[in-house]
Amino acid sequence: MRNALKIASVLAVGALALAGCGSSSSSAPAGNGSSGPTSSIKVGMAYDIGGRGDKSFNDSAARGLDKAKADFGVTTQELSAVAGETDQQKAARLTLLAQGGYNPVIAVGFAYAGAVKTVAAQFPKTNFAIIDDSSNLQPNVANLVFAANQSSYIVGVIAAQASKAASVGFIGGVNVPLLQSFQAGFDAGVKATDSSAKIQDKYLTQPPDFTGFNAPDKGKTVAQGMYDSGADIVFAAAGGSGSGVFAAAKSSGKLAIGVDSDQYLSATPDVQSVILTSALKNVDQAVYDFIKSAVDGKTLTGVQTFDLKNGGVGYSKSNPAVAPYEAKADAAIAAIIAGTVTVPNTIG
Amino acid sequence: MKRLKRLALMLVAPVLALAFAVLVTSLILVASGHAPLGVFTSMWNYGSAPDSLALTLNLATTYYLSALAVAVGFRMNLFNIGVDGQYRLAALIAAAVGGSLHLPAVLDVVVILVVAMLVGAGWAAIAAVLKNRRGVSEVISTIMLNYISIGVIAYLLTPDRLAVAVQGSNNIGTQPIPPNGQVPGFSVIGGAQNAVYGLILLAVACGVAYWYLLGFTRFGYDLRATGLSPTAAVASGVNVKRMVLISMLLSGAIAGLVGMPQLLGASYTYSLDFPTGLGFTGIAIALLGRNHPVGIAFGALLWAFLDTSRLILDLGGVSKEIVTIMQGVSVLSVVVAYELVRRYNIAAQQREVGRALAAETPELVGQGTA
Amino acid sequence: MVANHDIDITVRRGTVHAIVGENGAGKSTLMKILYGMQRPDEGTIAIEGEVVALHSPSDAIARGIGMVHQHFQLADNFTVLENVILGDEPTSGLRLDLGSARRRIRELGEQYGLSVDPDAVVEDIGVGDRQRVEILKVLFRGARTLILDEPTAVLVPQEVDELFRALGELKSQGLTVIFISHKLDEVLAVADEITVVRQGTTVTSVLPADVTARKLAQLMVGSELPSPQTRLSTVTEDVVISVRDLTLATPEGRLLLDRISFTIHRGEVLGIAGVEGNGQAELVETIMGMRTPLSGDITYDGKDIVDWPTRRRREAGIAYIPEDRSRHGLLLEASLWENRMLGHQTLAPNAKGPLIDRAGARKDTARIVSEYDVRTPGIDVMASALSGGNQQKLIVGREMSGDPLVLIAAHPTRGVDVGAQAAIWDQLRAARSRGLGVLLISADLDELIGLSDRLEVLLRGRFVAEADPATVTPEELGSAMTGAGGEAA
């Protein structure tokens, strides 16, 4: 068994070397030939479908990786998933990284939960991290999760203040528990600020149809419906579909709230003004912190929650129009950190 | 001698097609600055490692079942594009039933498999009935049913209905199937960490049954006759509507099994990340294997091997979509190659007959045994 | 080219040149080569002294060669005009120029005596008109040489005369016609020169004045002309199948069969005469259970079978030689032994319970091949590899197997060479004397008159006349078929 494993790793590494020939490797160590810091740590990163360049979740993780690379000089290797994979294929990807000596290995997205469980048991000396899942309690696994309900609560507070008609909307990309926690927080934030406010909640698609995360047309239609029925600010927790929501806001002369990253900064200039703020989910920070812990020799394990308190989630202030509402938002943050307010995590 | 020649003719099409696919892929690799030989070698080295081989066999198992489901229809010119929806719905219901069952080990598995087949067949039957009663093309109806099945699954896969939420996870799935309903894997490949699905035997059994059904039964003859010439089949007494219904049910039942190796051999629950799109892979593989049970087996293994070994490509900075291109080109070119070989074959046989007549020896007929 | 070796033909401009030969003699292959559908392995084709290579039908068309196929290639729900221009649409700018096309079709029609209403829908016009459309199609594309493959097979005598007049017109205006047929009387009547092909070789070229039909037939096969005459009546008193008031309609309610009644006794051949498209195919398909009649009864062997599915009828002993063998009689891309099973796949020697009996089917196929002289190198070749005549022999052999009580035979010798035709006639006669009842449909009036014990004339889905084959002439029958003659004989 052990021997075979060795042979397998030799083969895999040999293959790596071969594949490296004549290829424009994307994983040249940052430290080589430059005066930056160097580290012997090799970080493996397994993305979900879309990989680096998806302008969303995976990209956010990639930013954290890039920052860690620049700051610590770690070596990195990135692999990404294809549609319709089985757990075994995902496990094979993680195995490939673990066998290649990458430690820690970061799996981006809850779809990797099963694969991480399998591979972490096979490689007890390798540290793993999984983002957006907290079901894995093996000693060499860190679960990096986000209190998105808290950031959603804060943008709910802002939305309730900004709404002149006391009518707001929530659009979730896909109706999964993760997005439901966004809705729970948002609704609670709105109600806490203006108990009379009307809230419309909609999801673009139902699982297993995950297209709701990347369907601007659907986002636009649903948002338009909300604006037409009186809402004047809509929280678009819908990944790539958000651009449709922003377009609807622009054409209706209403407002919208972005999600995950500061979408005011990444949006095209013509819709920038309608993005009042964004509920931030700093995946990049989580990735960076995790790698930092590995570089420091104190690799994180267990459930690591990124919340308002440690700055893992928050809201953006880059749109100056949000300034009038900041006071109440910041007060809500303080209350949550202090524990005087508890944000619900589930709807209903 | 003649049989050997015929076998060679059968093989020439896929071999030509593969060679062409490799050529196209190589050109793209060269164009993007990679050495094709190096890339292929690294794929081979990684793909032939024990773990990869086990994974390949597991993928091939599901691909094979999916392609068989498609091929049953293809043989009578019935295009079941709905295998995708059929297996997903079947897997969900079977998983839910399996999660609530507490039966003795073997019986438990049998019940789950039967439920899956019934659900798959039932879902496919809708298309058959629409075709027979209303003349709706099964291509259209099965594609539409794929979308409807997604909606149905979305409706059913919520904590109020068939799903349970997993603590601390963003995933939801059905109640996990207890060990009695699980099918243990084999460690057939020395040194592999992962086992080979026990249900690979089911796939093999399905293949043998398919081969026997088509080649040796009256039903199989009727099915092939309908595929070769619907008009002649009708004139020969085949009830085409009945054939449409039965073969659609068969196709759906096999489709129902597609998700089973994964469900009973690995995940034990139908959750949001249950593999999707296997039905479409099945279409490609059925084409690749020319609806022949052995051809499909090779097609499924090849496809699975490529899917497995492509993992290594990222590591070398080669876009792994290159494998998708290779798969696509090989399917396209195999279709073209089969057509060319088919035409060549007809012409060759006509020439053969002509030669026999020119030799003025009409008594050439041998007793000829198969 | 092995099917044809040493074919040597010279066709002079402005003549009708007939090519005659047995089926499988290489006529079809020769035509395909001339029309660019197949390429010769050796040898050359010269047009007006210039050696040309024809790679495809479009090459041939560009060289002024046009082909009128035996089976019409028309879109039924298009008008004549649309059919003629299909694939060669005249345009002015981006717009279809229908006006000028219509004018041109009228001109061509008048010029060659081929007038057809350009705006009639093809499914509404008769067989003769359809053939004119096929010829117009070819002329419209500028053909100067026309190849006609068995053009008279589907025509009644009067229509044949009209066709020949048109061919004469074409000839007089300098066009060349290559005329393929094995109806020797017609060939002698219309051709300026005749080439006889046998086993892929040109036997000889003769002038019609120098030969008789009998001589020509001997050149083709080297044997005596067979005769379809049935001398001795074998009709018995036992009714084997009777049809009463059978009525069939389209979904729109148009009647295809109108109260058809007849009775066939054991040992009797009932011939149905009629121009193609008057309900023969529908009658046969209704008797075989492939169509559901509106009303009426079919009694077979004492049982009412009108609700039986096709399979049960076949299992009960109704044999069927379909009119269109490639559509209804064969699986072209399956082997001969698999074709032996078609229509009999539930019966011995082809089946054992729910399984098929390969060995039994193969053995019986070999028997049919030798008994019916199917020319093939083996029983594993595809049906499509055989010539039309040999395919037909296989079908006849298959349907005569298993001692049927009734044979529904549509054009049993269509496309079969003279020698095989005689063999099939002999088989039919022998089966008849053993008590087989036959419903015979044929466009070959000599065959009908020669084989039948009784004749009915079918016109627009109704029996309009009866005739006694002992006294009726083909001309009289032809008149009755077109509804012109009234009661024949």
Keywords, please?
heterotrimer, A: 348 residues, alpha/beta, Rossmann fold, 2 domains, six-stranded parallel β-sheet, six-stranded mixed β-sheet, B: 370 residues, mainly alpha, two-stranded antiparallel ribbon, globular
Q: What's the mean pLDDT score of chain A?
A: 85
Main sheet makeup of chain B: 2 strands, antiparallel
- Element-level helix/strand string of chain A: HEHEHEHEEHEHEHEHEHHEHEEH
Instruction: Provide the spatial order of strands within the biggest beta sheet of chain A.
Output: 2-1-3-4-5-11
Using the alpha-carbon principal axes, give the shape of chain B. Answer: globular
Low-confidence stretches of chain A: 1-34
Please list the strands of the largest sheet of chain B in the order they lie side by side.
1-2
Kindly report the name of the CATH homologous superfamily of the largest domain in chain A: Response regulator
- What is the assembly state of the chains in this entry? heterotrimer
Largest interface comes to:
A-B, 60 and 63 residues
What is the number of independent domains of chain A?
A: 2
Radius of gyration of chain A: 21 Å
State the CATH class of the largest domain in chain A.
Alpha Beta
Strand content of chain B: under 5%
> Element order, helices and strands of chain B?
HHHHHHEEHHHHHHHHH
Strand content of chain A: 15-25%
> Would you report the number of β strands of chain B?
2
Global structural class of chain A: alpha/beta
Report on this structure:
The complex is a heterotrimer of chains A (348), B (370) and C (489). With 348 residues, chain A is of the alpha/beta class. Chain A has helices at 2-20, 57-72, 87-99, 113-122, 148-162, 177-193, 216-228, 242-252, 263-266, 269-272, 283-295, 326-338, and strands at residues 42-47, 75-80, 105-107, 128-131, 141-146, 167-174, 198-205, 233-237, 255-260, 275-281, 302-306, 313-315. Chain A folds into 2 domains: 36-146, Response regulator (Rossmann fold, 3-Layer(aba) Sandwich); 148-281 and 313-338, Response regulator (Rossmann fold, 3-Layer(aba) Sandwich), CATH 3.40.50.2300. Chain A has 12 helices and 12 strands. The radius of gyration of chain A is 21 Å and the shape is globular. Helices cover 72% and strands 2% of the residues of chain B. Chain B has 15 helices and 2 strands. Chain B has a two-stranded antiparallel sheet with strand order 1-2. The two termini of chain B are 13 Å apart. The mean pLDDT of chain C is 83. Classes of the chains: A alpha/beta (348), B mainly alpha (370), C alpha/beta (489). Chains in contact: A-B, B-C.
